[in-house]
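YM 10:42: DUF1848 domain-containing protein sequence, as discussed on the call
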Amino acid sequence: MILLASGRCDIVAFYSKWLLRRIEEGFVDVRNPYDPHQLSRIYLNEQSVDVLAFCTKNPLPILSYIKQIPFPMLFHVTLTPYHKEIEQLPNKKEILKAIRFLAKQLGKEHVVVRYDPIFLSDTYTLEYHRKAFQRLCEQLDGYVSTIIISFVDMYKNTKENIARMRLQTMRPSDMLEIGKNFGEIAKKHHLHLQTCAEEIDLSMYGITQGACFERNHLEAIAKHSLSHISDKGVRSMCDCLATVDIGDYNCCAHDCLYCYANYDSKAILQRMKCHDPNSSVLIGRIEEDDHIHERKESSIKQISLL
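YM 10:58: structure's back
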């Protein structure tokens, strides 16, 4: 399986010690978002986990523990140019250093940078994004091969924060201008640029429509065939391999105004207080009326790709 940590919250930033404890104990329990008393027990061993995929905005807390993780790893690190009124993150210069560290430790094929979502406001203009993306590519030159971009979607949380973000309508002409500018910049720095689950075609600027978790890429990281894993995109435009997410919603303190997964700031603070690093579940503990179902994984087909 492709173990995902996580598309629902930033486990790396806030719960790295819990994750390492779960790997040490060999399993994790994950609540069903629609029925919290139904849990899946997922076994964390080399027979079950093909690749551990991290989605994070702040990889700093896990850097010193990389060598303790026994699985092949892929990091998706989101690095956007927004300030504290939009998202709460450490100094982004430190995050850039962390990306370069991961690339040196694991190899640049194991690190993908995401510049998403892109939105426009009176502060974050087309020219602002052009300059920000150029600085980003200059600092990543030689460290990563791929940058993924996407444009803002109108999730519930995003709609509620339109005024706070001073959000402007993203027109097709704006997307094309961004594509033209970004494509030219990426080419100069020998970076592959792709969109994520976007309908607009930017291929004329050298920007491909690709999968975030693409089969050939993951097989190269796993070093064996992933034919036992199905293609199962989570969105209509998504071509990613199926992943198993061990995160939970409303327990991430980045407070991103555009986030789809965490949309209740009061609930987030209360839920994070319930986190127990020794618990098998991310938030809270196993309760009497919980029902745990053991997830059965297809055996890994050890077909070497070396």
